[in-house]
Design brief:
The complex is a heterodimer of chains A (129) and B (284). With 129 residues, chain A is mainly α. Chain A is built from 8 helices and no strands. In chain B, strands 6-3-7-2-8-1-10-9 form an 8-stranded mixed beta sheet, sandwiched between helices. A two-stranded antiparallel sheet of chain B has the order 4-5. Classes of the chains: A mainly alpha (129), B alpha/beta (284).
Chain lengths: 129, 284
Amino acid sequence: MEKEYEDIPGTFVFDADRSREGYHLNQFCISLRLQKNRDEFNADEEAYLDKYPMKPEQRDAVLKRDWNRLLELGGNIYYTSKLAANDGINFQNLAGLMTGMGVEAYRDMMLHGGRSIEGNRYKSEWSED
Amino acid sequence: MARITAGVGCSHVPAIGVAMDTKITDQPYWQPVFKGFEKSREWMKEKNPDVIFLVYNDHCTAFDASCIPTFALGAAAEFKPADEGWGPRPVPVVKNHQKMASHIAQSLVLDEFDITIMNEMEVDHGLTVPLSVMYGDMGPDDEWPALVIPLAVNVVQYPAPTGNRCYNLGKAIRKAVESYEEDLNVVIFGTGGMSHQLQYKRAGLINAEWDKRFLDLLTEDPVYASKIPHVEYLREAGSEGVEMVMWHVMRGALDDEVIEVHRHYHVPASNTAVGHIILENKAA
């Protein structure tokens, strides 16, 4: 199926291909919705992760809290945000980390109307991606 | 008979719920967000619906990646606020009009909308935040003033249902409501949006111009609005802005011509543009 959304910069659209790739990673993340699982994970992260047959690079990104790498490997933000919540990081601070801007600069950008759409529609408008 | 008298479009930003739950709505950051709902709360008191048909999306709370229904209708007697990773919101349990929900489910399937029926379901901020902003502070021991029939729409895994499908589902919901014999005042909510992107390097995208055009179209030219393709939401309103397809369900359930009685738009709430609209059927 054609992916007409692939030329949007700085964005992963969570389609079936990404969902397949990230399945065990995302199922791990959502398990942290429940307090008993958060307690178990926080007591021994490695042992808890053994229950989820994710790829070594996904597991590594979890342990390193590499938020962007998690998305690159099929994670979805609504799932990875559960891992962030476990660490006491809310959606806005997580965005500050993912954009590389840092929490303060990101919050300031949002207070001034957010990231403009101008120059942010197509990958060709970005020097990277 | 039951009838749908009005529609409410409303963002459901989780941080809005947190602001209410932690009593910080008077802070300068939040004050303008809540100011725009003062009129709405008066309107809700006046309107006093018996039932709210609430279209929202679950954020990987009741549904994990193992099961992804496009449309899931809540038929359980009640829905508890879920622990989304930071403890359940301290708000009332949501009570259903169970008999009406079952009637709507049957009517929709016979009308060829093959929805999923949920006889057990917890609800997340997508459902409880719109109730909170429209009704004001309510504790866990209070009761929501209306019964609520939830309809969860998949907008997490691409593709969400099309705007056109959502719009036509709204029409089928109206037909189902109007064939229910009890005399009930029903208000339909479409929630989510507006422009926002929560993820990766383009996070923080806001497109106020696009959002305002969407609100204008929703009121004046809903059929045109329902044809907006997914890629336009994703590109122009951010990857999570595609939630706005759910507003078309609400709009489809109303008359072709409606009266816009209230509108509120503010940036930001956390990562998101907050949008809100109240539309009434002229005959209501």
